[in-house]
Amino acid sequence: IKGVGGYERLDDLVERGGNSIRTWGVGPETGALLDLAQEKGLTVTLGLWMEHERHGFSYADQDAVAAQLERHRQAVLAHKDHPAVLMWAVGNEMEHGTSDPVAVWKAVEDVAAMIKDLDPNHPAITVIAELGHEGKSVRMPHEHCPSIDAIGINTYGGIVNVGDRYRDLNPTKPYLITEHGVLGQWEVGKTEWGLPIEQTSTEKAEFYRLGYQNAVLNHPGLSLGAYTFLWGEKQETTDTWFGMWLRDGARTGSVDVIQTMWTGQPPANRVPQIDAVQLMGPKVVKPGAAVKVRISASDPDDDPLTARWVLRHASEGVAQGGDFEERNAEVENAITRADTRAAGARMPQEPGAYRLFVYLYDNHGGAATANVPLLVSDDPARTAEAAP
Q: What is the end-to-end Cα distance of the chain in Å, rounded?
């Protein structure tokens, strides 16, 4: 499987060597998506969403569990004969935070057994969040779900050795990586005021390469491939954290890396690189303070570069499990000067957390991104302590 999570840019996916996409659920749009995938020569792993306790569902409620099973039965009947269907993915991280894991896995087995009865032509997998404490999330479906054919693993920071760790659990089911990408916001260092520090897009691209090599290419036979996340863009902590593409349609280095992993050949033209980011002064500043950031950047093909700098409000908190977030608002008229090497900004009078972003573009649709977290504080002791 040379796949992605996301339903956008399918022509780009095919052109760059991809062959599959996955969904997290089935809905009114599923039939049209399957038709589109078939038209483009792609397969689809169809997700059957198993409810999460953190969203208010109870696996002790037998009526609710039975209704969920019936919904999935109808979905299987509706789509099992479509030629684009590759397999069924029963649930996505539904074991995370549950009070009764056995009940959850029993419900997963009931759905998988139903699939085996109605659709013996397509495998059924389940999708877990990493491997769980001491491999519990791997052991539970092995023990309770004989109808599950393989384990889908969503992993971010752990991608670098997840294949080795899975193998060491002596599993009898193969695995596939159902989500992987950059270090998650829960896995990185934080500022002293608690804001997660985002990698540059260049650092992210290298992490994609390392993870794919170690989790997929280094485990032939045990690994069935991967769905790389996210083939598109979304707001999660920032509007650049997980997306391999930007909102304006530019691609980042992660796209180039995955294309190289899939095909063995890099693209003809490569994206810019941001080699270093330097804040010229303190991270905690007074309201209205002037700040300056410098970057060291290059382009592998010596393409001319342009830059866009934006100051944004930072997210107040960190959503869980990819839950919806409002986009971080831009601060208007904050940038005082900017080019491809540096930018100056005037911070708002409003205290709070901010990020200063740079979007660096070549003239072939490629981009690189980085941001610097900043805090505006009206506490004189705090800003004095932070002075350079």
A: 51
Q: Where are the beta strands (DSSP E) in 240-366?
A: 273-279, 284-285, 290-298, 306-313, 335-338, 342-346, 352-361
**pTM for the model:** 0.93
Q: Is 122 helix (H, G, I), strand (E, B) or coil?
A: coil
CA–CA separation, 286 vs 384, rounded Å?
9
36 sits in the region (left: phi over 0; alpha: psi -120 to 50; else beta) called alpha
Burial class (CB in 10 A: 0-12, 13-18, 19+), 26: buried
For residue 230, whether the previous peptide bond is cis, meaning omega lies within 30 degrees of 0, is yes
Backbone angles phi, psi at 264, to 5 degrees: 80, 0
Distance CA 244, CA 334 (A): 27
Tally the residues of the chain: 388
Rounded Cα gap, residues 239 and 245, in angstroms: 10
CB atoms within 10 A of CB 220: 7
How many Å apart are CA 218 and CA 215, to the nearest integer?
6
Inter-residue contact 160 to 210 (CB < 8 Å): yes
Q: What gap in Å lies between CA 333 and CA 351, rounded to an integer?
A: 17
Positive or negative, the CA dihedral 361, 211, 34, 91 is negative
Mean pLDDT, 10 residues at a time, the chain of 388 residues: 95 98 97 98 98 94 98 98 98 93 97 98 98 97 98 97 98 98 95 96 98 97 97 95 97 98 97 98 97 98 98 78 82 98 98 98 98 95 65
- The two three-digit tokens of residue 127, written as one number: 């999708």
Distance CA 353, CA 194 (A): 10
